[in-house]
Amino acid sequence: MILARAVQASRRYGDVLALDRVDVEVRAGELVGLLGPNGAGKSTLMNLFVGLRRPTSGRVELFDGDPRDPASRRQIGVTPQETGLPGTLRVGEVVDFVSAHYPAPIPRDELLDRFGLADQARRQTGGLSGGQRRRLAVALAFVGRPRLVLLDEPTTGLDVEARHTLWEAIRAFHADGGTVLLSSHYLEEVEALANRVVVIGHGRVLADDTVDAIRAVVGVRRVSLVADDLPALPGVVRAERVDGRTHLLTTDADQLVRDLVTAGVSFSGLEVRPTSLEEAFLAITAEQQEPSGTAGGDGTRTGRPGGSPVAPRPAGADGTPTTAATGGRPTTA
Amino acid sequence: MQLALVHTRYQLLEIIRIPVAVVGSAFFPAAAMLFFVVPFAGKDPVGATYATAAMVTFSVMSSNIFQYGIGVAEDRDQPWNPYTRTLPAGPAPRFAGRVLAGLVLTYLSLIPVVVIGATLTAAEISLAAFLLAAATVAVVAVPFTLMGLAIGYSLPSKAAIVVAQVVFFPLAFGGGLLSAPDEAPGFIEVIAPYLPTRGAVELMWAAVGDYPVRPLSLVMLVVWVVVLAALAGWAYRRDEGRRFS
C-alpha cells in the first residue's frame, strides 16, 4: 500500500526550479531516507507531502488524497522547526495542544517519557536547551499515533547522544509497523536508519535504491595525479583532465592505486580524497546524459564499472541541471 | 468548535504569559480617563457617562487594532504557524480561536476604564444599559478587528507596528472620541461621521444614554465594515497564496 506519492511533481519559486519532475513513492512499513545536500529540494518535497505547498505541476498524494485536505493529514505526523515552538507555552501544554487535533493521541506523560522529557513537562519551551527543544519537536510528530511520519532533518545540530536517542525513537516506531520518510544531509544518519534511500540533487531524484546500493556509489573517491598517459584502468567511474592533473573517480581507491603501480606508469602528486555525495551523483548522472562528451578537457574515459547496482535517472533533456537555491521553507528561521 | 476553544485557550495562554502585553492595551485608555475625563467631566453624570463610553470605544479600537495588527504579523514570522497548518484541521479553528481570544482580551482591557468611570466620576448606568453596552462592545469590535487583520495579514511585523500606531490616533481624535458628544472642534464634526470610530462611539452612547444615532455615521460604519472585511479577506488570501501555494 502506498501512503505517499509524488508523480512528476515540479515546484518552481519564481525563476528557481526547486523540484523537477520528481517521482517518489513511500509504501507502508518503509523507512525511507531522503538524502541530498542543502538546497537540493528535500524540504520542498517534504512541504508538498504535508500540504504546506502545492506542486507547480504534477501530482502529490497522501493516503490517496490531496495533502492540502485536512482529512488526508489525519494519519501523518510532522515535526516543527525547533526554533518554531511557542516560547511562553510549557512543554506539556504544547503536547496537549497538538494532541487536541487527533482522535486517540498518545498520553502526554507516556510521550514525554519516551523522548526523555518527562522532567521538563512544566518548563516553558523557551527555557529548554537546543537538544530538548529538538526532541520535543520530534515528539510532536508522534502524538497522534500516525501511520506515516515525515521528519525534515530531525537531528541537524544535535550532539551525538541526543541524536542516538532520537534514532532509537524512530527505530521503535518503525519496528511497530510505522512508516517514516526522513530527510537528511548526513549519509551516516540515513545509513543508520533507512532501508531505502532516495537521493535528491538539483531538484531531481538522482537515485532510489537500497542503502547498500547507494553506499556503493556514494563511496566513490577521487584519485588525482599528474601523469602523461594512463592505460585503461578497471574500476574507474569517470576520468577527466583539468589543468594538467588527471582526476579519476573510483569506487575502490586502494585497488586503483595498486593497479597504477603494477601498470608501471610514471606519475606524481598522488592525492586520494572522498567525493561529496553531490559530486559522486552528479558525476555519474553527467556521464549517463552525455555518453560521448567530456566535461573537462581531453580526459581518458573508461566506462562505468560493470554491474553497478544503482541506476541513476538521466538528468534533464536539455542537459543543464537547474540549480535549486532555496530549500523551500515557508518562513525564514 | 471544540478545536476553536482549544486554540482560544492557547492563544490566551501565550498572551497572558507576557502580562505586560495585557497591561499595555489597557493602559492608554485608563490614563486618558484619569487625565481628561475625571478632571473635566467627572462631576456631571451625563457627561461622565458619555465620556466613559467614548473611552471604552477608544479602548476597543486600540486593543483590537494592536493585537490583531501586530499579533497576526508576528505570528506569520514564526515557524510554528506553518507547523500548525500540517495538523489535521483547516484554518477555521485557529482563526476562530484568534477572534475569540481577541474578544476576551478586549473585555479585559476595558476593566480599568469601567472601574475608573464607576469610582472616580459621577457616571451612572442602569444594569440593563450596562449589559446593552457590553453587547455593543462586541459589535463595535468588528470593524477594528477587521482593520487589525487587514494590517496583520498584509504587512511584515515591523511595518505593522508602525501602521497600527499611525492609524489609531487620527481615528480616535477624528472620530471625536476625546470630546463630548457634538462639542468637538468644527472640523472634527465635519469629518467624524465618515470615520468608523464615530459610528462606533455613537452606538455606545446610544447604549448608555439616550443619544440619537445619526444615520450618516451608521451608514458609514457599515461601509467601513464591508470595505475592511474585503481588505482583510484579500490580505489573508494573498498571504496564503504567496506562502502556501
UniProtKB/TrEMBL annotation, chain A:
Keyword Protein biosynthesis: no
Protein's cellular compartments: Cell membrane
GO biological process: response to antibiotic
SUPFAM superfamilies: P-loop containing nucleoside triphosphate hydrolases
UniProt entry keywords in alphabetical sequence: Antibiotic resistance, ATP-binding, Nucleotide-binding, Transport
One Pfam family hit: ABC_tran
Biased composition regions of type Low complexity, renumbered to the chain: 313-333
GO molecular function: ATP binding; ATP hydrolysis activity
Membrane topology type: Peripheral membrane protein
Domain annotation ABC transporter: ranges: 4-227
Main location, first listed in the record: membrane
PANTHER family (UniProt xref): ABC TRANSPORTER ATP-BINDING PROTEIN
Protein name: ABC transporter ATP-binding protein
Organism: Micromonospora costi
TrEMBL record, chain B:
Membrane topology value: Multi-pass membrane protein
Segments traversing the membrane: 20-41, 47-66, 99-121, 127-152, 159-180, 216-236
Start and end residues of each ABC-2 type transporter transmembrane domain: 7-204
GO biological process: response to antibiotic
Transmembrane found in the keyword field: yes
Cellular component GO terms, alphabetical: ATP-binding cassette (ABC) transporter complex
Listed Pfam families: ABC2_membrane (PF01061)
The organism's place on the tree of life at top rank: Bacteria
GO MF terms, alphabetically ordered: ABC-type transporter activity
Keywords of the record: Antibiotic resistance, Membrane, Transmembrane, Transmembrane helix
Subcellular location field: Membrane
PANTHER family: ABC-TYPE MULTIDRUG TRANSPORT SYSTEM, PERMEASE COMPONENT, NODULATION PROTEIN J
Protein known as: ABC transporter permease
The organism of origin for this protein: Micromonospora costi
